[in-house]
Design goal:
Elements (H helix, E strand, L loop, with lengths): L1 E2 L25 E2 L1 H7 L8 E5 L3 E6 L4 E7 L20
Antiparallel strand pairs: 1-2, 3-4, 4-5
């Protein structure tokens, strides 16, 4: 697994103070096997993300391999399932 550390810019902003349905990704998750296979060539991510009974899991379909499985340890966290409307939906 390759994880890039998030930047410190805006890190102290509270969840309630930002539009959480905009893209706020500071670091991306990649399958290290996909990166190795691609060499210097660009590659397409083949990751699946889903809920498990413990938390959330990232899975590589290409290599049938776990990338990350986060255990929430029974804690509940706020989440935003809304999305921004596309221009054609505003008409």
């Amino acid at each position: 697994m390759v994880v890039h550390m998030p930047s410190e810019i805006g890190y102290n902003k509270r969840w309630h103070d930002v539009k959480s349905n905009l893209c706020h990704i500071d670091s991306y998750i990649h399958c290290s096997l996909c990166l190795k296979d691609s060499g210097d060539d660009p590659y397409t991510q083949k990751l699946e993300v889903g809920w498990t009974k413990w938390g959330i899991q990232v899975w590589c379909r290409e290599h049938n391999a776990n990338i990350m499985h986060v255990d929430f340890e029974g804690a509940k966290h706020p989440g935003d399932e809304s999305r921004q409307q596309r221009d054609e939906e505003l008409v």
